[in-house]
Write a structure and sequence with these properties.
heterodimer, A: 264 residues, alpha/beta, Rossmann fold, 3 domains, 6-stranded mixed beta sheet, 4-stranded antiparallel beta sheet, 10 strands, globular, B: 333 residues, mainly alpha, ABC transporter involved in vitamin B12 uptake, BtuC, two-stranded antiparallel sheet, disordered N terminus, binds adenosine-5'-diphosphate, binds magnesium ion
Chain lengths: 264, 333
């Protein structure tokens, strides 16, 4: 694998006396696609919000390209080349598409005044790039007028504008139609081919299995499994494991497979 | 993404006029209210409203209101409110009066007033934003507090500045050219700069983003607290300018300076079409709102009705405007 882009060590986050994330070690390397799995409430969104700097961990260290960072926040995360498509999409719905794409990253000329033309043409280019063009709306349309899939398109366009090294997608296909979902996956493949990293959270394990090379399964705020695609072999094995941690009865179905691999 | 026909061409350029109307619904609506109001004034008092003096008297006081309304639009857009600007205005004007009274050049007084106004705005902003207080209540408290700080040392006495009239600063900012009050020019420049700041500057778009969805703005790396505080500093700047201009117009500083502007300024912001919920607003609309409010105050009396009617018509216009904007605006969620 390539360079270690980001690494979390012993990350914890508590809300009151509940640990949403309870001591997680994980990393993402350059050029890899990592699938983050886990039941509802497992702590996936909290973990990626920590990576995005939006949530401050109560404990632990964050390393970017091998160096520990202090005072991690959303600005530093974006500056480090990490772009996040949040589960709730984090859009300002009364603003235009252009304003949302460039939120916090405005293209400005002298004295901080906006370069409106450049923003508009960049927005058009980004939307075309991800197959997100229409006669019905323009970059100046208000986001509140768009459908869920179209809003997801805006959130994704924002994430790719900055040529990030790592794009984090938190359940990007939830509540999308089949064709919209297909578009998101096509986008993920394009990003992967361009050699950038992706951290993908999804509820459909088959989908995640298809696009990712390595999987991290969270269970009640802890890493229950970290495994490569080569080792786990099939989506069904992953599903069996996740059912096992949800309703533990009998032996861990992965034990045999993983041991087999280790022996071979 | 699916419901859209994929195509190679960029989105069709929307018709320019339609886009302008769509993007300026609120301020155009306010303009319509103004036109209707003027038509009514004309119908009732054609002789008075076809002559210059009535406009002159509106233009005398309008600039002061504009310096206040414009920054208040930014504050309401960012999702806060400020009730402390009248005292900030009185306080900065007091500094101006003291500097001039001490024999210094009024320019120096202006600079001192602006610095003090912005510092007070910064203080109010920090108290509201970093202490996490409700801006409605905290700024109400600040208004009393600051007014008290004016009243205690001055014991309620005014300062007369009769020497002002001979100064360059007065001629530049407050004299009249061919019967036209020059302060209007400065206020209009202020409004125009603010319109660009609001619509075409990083500060303005961040103010709107923070007011629209503070969590998203923070997740995108915007320092939302800093932006909020900055709107209060801008309010301090506007209040100081309003205070200086009103002192220059009257040649006198009163310890109550600014008090009378609280409700008309608030009314102008909302009559102008800036909604209460944050994220969107209109500086141009707010400016027109200030014109409307000024005309009601002057026009009612000039039109031959007794001053007792002013409050009634003020209220009527506010309610009718809000109803109009409610029908005219959609709140996206
Ligand atoms: N802001 C918050 N305040 C309190 N509890 C929270 C907050 N955010 C998340 N939690 C709790 O933390 C746990 C993990 O949530 P989350 O990270 O959203 O899980 P997932 O994305 O895997 O479904 C849940 O029990 C959730 O209720
Ligand atoms: Mg989640």
């Amino acid at each position: 694998m390539g360079e270690r882009l980001i690494e979390l060590r012993e990350i914890k986050k508590s809300y009151g006396n509940v640990f949403a994330v309870g001591g997680v070690n994980m990393h993402v390397d350059r050029g890899e696609v990592v699938g983050l799995l886990g039941d509802n409430g497992a702590g996936k969104s909290t973990l990626i919000k920590i990576l995005a700097g939006a949530v401050r961990p109560s404990h632990g260290q964050i390393f970017v390209r091998g160096t520990e960072v202090q005072g991690w926040n959303p600005g530093k995360s974006r500056d480090a080349g990490i772009e996040t498509v949040f589960q709730d999409r984090a859009l300002a719905v009364q603003q235009t598409i252009v304003r949302n794409i460039f939120m916090g990253r405005e293209i400005t000329g002298p004295f901080g005044f906006l370069d409106v033309r450049k923003e508009r043409s960049e927005a058009e280019r980004l939307m075309r790039e991800i197959g997100f063009t229409s006669k019905v709306f323009s970059p100046d349309s208000i986001v509140g007028q768009l459908s869920g899939g179209e809003r997801q398109g805006v959130a994704i366009a924002r994430a790719i504008y900055n040529k990030a090294d790592l794009i984090i997608l938190d359940e990007p296909t939830t509540a999308l139609s089949l064709t919209e979902t297909e578009k998101v996956f096509r986008f993920v493949r394009t990003v992967r081919e361009s050699g950038r990293s992706i951290l993908f959270i999804g509820h459909n394990i088959h989908h995640v299995f298809d696009i990712a090379e390595r999987f991290i399964v969270l269970d009640r705020g802890r890493v229950a499994l970290e495994v490569t695609k080569a080792k786990v072999k099939s989506a069904d094995n992953l599903i069996a494991f996740m059912e096992h941690i949800a309703h533990p009865s009998g032996p861990n179905p992965l034990d045999e497979i993983l041991r087999e691999k280790g022996a071979a | 993404m699916a419901s859209i026909v994929e195509q190679k061409l960029p989105a069709e350029q929307p018709n320019g006029l339609r886009q302008f109307v769509g993007g300026n619904r609120a301020s155009l609506g306010t303009l319509a209210v103004f036109v209707v109001m003027m038509v009514i004034f004309f119908a009732f008092a054609p002789r008075i409203f076809s002559q210059w003096p009535i406009y002159n008297s509106v233009l005398q006081t309008l600039p002061v209101a504009l310096f206040l309304v414009v920054p208040l639009v930014f504050i309401v857009t960012v999702g806060e409110i400020d009730l402390s600007f009248p005292a900030t205005m009185g306080f900065s004007a007091w500094i101006f009066a003291l500097v001039v009274q001490a024999g210094f050049d009024p320019f120096l007084g202006m600079i001192a007033a602006v610095i003090v106004g912005m510092a007070l705005g910064l203080g109010v902003g920090i108290v509201v934003v970093y202490a996490g207080l409700s801006s409605l209540v905290a700024t109400l408290g600040m208004n009393f507090l600051l007014r008290g700080l004016i009243m205690i040392p001055t014991e309620g006495k005014s300062i007369s500045l009769s020497s002002l009239g001979d100064t360059l600063a007065y001629n530049l900012f407050s004299s009249s050219v061919g019967g036209f009050p020059i302060q209007v020019v400065w206020a209009v420049i202020f409004v125009l700069v603010a319109i660009f700041l609001y619509n075409r500057h990083r500060f303005g778009v961040r103010v709107r983003a923070v007011g629209d969805n503070p969590d998203s703005a923070a997740q995108m790396g915007i320092d939302t607290k800093r932006i909020r505080v900055a709107t209060f500093v801008f309010m301090g700047l506007g209040s100081a300018l309003a205070g200086v201009f009103s002192t220059m117009i009257n040649f006198t500083w009163w310890p109550s300076a600014g008090d009378a502007y609280l409700l008309p300024t608030l009314a102008a912001v909302f009559v102008g079409g800036t909604p209460t919920w944050g994220g969107v607003g209109t500086v141009a609309g707010g400016a027109i709102g200030a014109v409307i409010v000024s005309f009601i105050q002057t026009g009612i009396v000039a039109g031959g009705l007794s001053g007792f009617y002013v409050q009634f018509f003020n209220g009527l216009i506010i309610i009718l405007s809000l109803l109009g904007h409610r029908w005219n605006q959609i709140r996206y969620r």
